[in-house]
Amino acid sequence: MGLFDSEDTQDRDAAILIDINNNRDAMRYDNAGTREFTLTKDGFMDCANGWKDRYASVYIGDVAKDSDDFKYPLLRAMSDITITNIELTLDTTLDADGSNYESIAFHRSGASAALFTALTTTAGLALKTPSAVSGITSAAGAIPKDETFYMAPTMVGTGGILSGVGLHITYTIDRPEAQTGTVTDNVLRAKNGEAGTDGLIQTDHLQRDSLQLKRNGVEVLTIDVDGIMRGGCDYTPVDLYHYAVVNVGTIIAADSAAKKSAIFKPGGTATIKKVFFGADTVALADSETAYMEVIITDDSSNRIGSAFVHGPASSGTALVAGRLYDMGELNETYATIASTEHAQVEYLALGSPADIAGLTVIIAYTYI
Amino acid sequence: MADLRLVNVPGSGPLIYGDQGAGTRAAADFITFEKNDTEVFSVNYLGIPDPGGVQNTRQIAVQVGDIVAASDAFDYFLFESRGTITITKIEYCVDTDTLDGGTNGQTLLISNNAGAKIASVATPTANPGVDAATWTTLGDITNEELTTGQYCYFSPTVVSSGLVMSGLTFLISYTTGA
After folding, report:
1. For each of chain A's 368 residues, which pLDDT tens digit applies?
2. Contact A203/A210 with Cβ under 8 angstroms?
3. Given CB 3.0 to 4.6 Å as the disulfide criterion, which of A6, A111, A120, B98 pairs with B129?
């Protein structure tokens, strides 16, 4: 038997109720003295293992020799994140060229300096073989909430054509707030050698929730009787957000009412909480007669959210290259997507708008 | 009322702390939540959460872009794992109806970094070959585990004269391990 075991007890409250009004964590688990898991007061599961890793693979297409004008938006999140690894790939081998090549730097929108050591293509790149970006540290890779992580290539000499560029990013969602104080100050504590093979913390019920975690009396996380994690009414733990990141390519006027770019199909019922969008080239909101509406829909073309690009001046979004913008309030009626449905992008042109170059869409969602 | 109720407890450390160490508990869960004697949520001895429903499954959407008809020369890296993961499902989708796939098509093969097949499917012999905005599974998954530093990539192969695929997107579902 473990440290705590609750089986078939009767009540409507969760079997375990934790309400924290200070800075301490709810739970911590070490393995032979090394921290492996922490459940913070914010309902955040801070893991030392692969659970913490998130991936985004963004294909930006071909990068021209004269690449300086392009900035490719890659990632924006609902909370602070940290970039931990980046691999760059091509779909066609690039020969070595020490004179004419591309220098590929990564930035965040809130700072002008490059974050890591620029990746150069001087030695050539073999197709589908990943090339790692060096110099990535937890400090350099920190991307605050509301900022965009983007890539900016620079031509050296006459540059080099990069075919089918893929950027493969590993990132972690940052813990909202650090715990301070001694690890050994606990209410329940078990260390080394207790007998038994049951879970250290164990519950078994037919109806009542297993765990409810509150902060200052406000629910932040519940693990229900089916083992499903959910946030509170007013707060969702930041690690319960998932992100689908897709570069849908360059959108032209002829794509209007024709192209449908599927973004994601959830494994279970999911709710879209936020949509970010951006492009690799500037798009002004300066035309009253020629602009494009970018529409997020479900697979029945029900509108979830939309934004205008290239105009009109009153309601269009002026895009800076390499930035991701909040699409704004979403239509909650259709923002919940069942596992049999998907979310997609559709396009509607007024007049003959200019292209939207390298349109990138990020959907932030949670499972129900 | 809760069986274990910890409310506004002063102090600074984790309210509940466990350290397995060695011995009989070395591989025991830290947390086990059951429903009628069936585990529905756990945090195992490695500190890995395993929630209920689909919450232990994550997805990566990778749009590799437009595939030309004569596609054999191109290979597309999909993603590299930074820990141990298990791929559970792969689906694909295009953003525009393809041409008639009755004669011409593509075989979509996803392999791991050692070149071993993970999944493969041929585009349907139909007209259009692939419908826009419709997800299609690549079928059974083999060599499903990727460990740190291992990656997977996509190789199209022409069937007859091939089939242009616009905005080809893969959706890879996986679960996490250590």
Report:
1. 678 899 999 988 999 999 999 999 999 999 888 999 999 999 999 999 889 999 999 999 999 888 888 999 999 999 999 999 999 999 899 999 999 999 999 999 999 999 999 999 999 999 888 999 999 999 999 999 999 999 999 999 999 999 999 999 999 999 998 877 788 899 999 887 666 788 899 999 999 999 999 999 999 999 999 999 999 999 999 999 999 999 999 999 999 999 999 999 998 999 999 999 999 999 999 999 999 999 999 999 999 999 999 999 999 999 999 999 999 999 999 999 999 999 999 999 999 999 999 999 999 999 98
2. yes
3. B98
Q: Which of B33, B54, B135 sits opposite A262 (nearest CB)?
A: B135
Q: Which residue's structure tokens are 């509301």?
A: A146
Q: Which residue from B11, B47, B74 is facing A164, i.e. has the nearest CB?
A: B74
The answer to whether B48 contacts A245, with C-beta atoms less than 8 Å apart, is no
A-chain CB neighbours of B36 within 8 Å are: 204, 206
A228–B18 C-beta distance less than 8 A: no
B15/A186 CB distance under 8 A:
yes
Spell out the domains of chain A, with CATH numbers in brackets: 51-173 (2.60.120), 241-367 (2.60.120)
ipTM score here? 0.93
Option in A29, A85, A226 nearest B82 (CB): A85
Beta-carbon separation of A299 and B133 below 8 A? yes
A248 touches A362 (CB < 8 A): no
User: Quick one: fold of B57-176?
Assistant: Jelly Rolls (2.60.120)
CA A30 from centroid of its chain's CA atoms: 28
pTM metric for this prediction: 0.95
Which amino acid, B122? Answer: A
